[in-house]
Amino acid sequence: MTESIGWFAAMVLLTTIGRQVYTQWRDGSSKGLSRWLFIGQITASIAFIVYSWLLGNWVFVVTNALMLVTAVLGQWVYLTNRKQAAAR
If you ran DSSP here, which 8-state letter would residue 28 be given? Predict the structure, then answer.
């Protein structure tokens, strides 16, 4: 039961952040977002992956690995949108 609560929380978190990145990509705008958001998320995700691995907590290893992927995608979308805005 405890682990299923963790997996549920992971799903909610990943859905929320994933939706934000998708909306940013779909709209072609990163207005209101700081590039430091994704840089911080990437850094924190890497640290949390190591921490979770050392604790042997697979819920957090997987969640933070997927959050890292989301952060990298978010940073890529942010930079792409910024380049397109500068070209206009």
Answer: T
d(CA 50, CA 65): 10
pLDDT tens per residue, range 22-78: 998 999 888 888 878 889 999 999 999 999 999 999 999 999 999 999 999 999 999
Tell me the C-alpha distance between 61 and 51, whole Å.
8
Give the long-range contacts of residues 72-79, CB within 8 A, separation 24 or more.
Answer: 72/38, 72/42, 73/21, 74/17, 74/20, 74/21, 74/24, 74/37, 74/38, 74/41, 75/35, 75/38, 75/39, 75/42, 77/21, 77/24, 77/25, 77/30, 78/24, 78/30, 78/33, 78/35, 78/38, 79/35
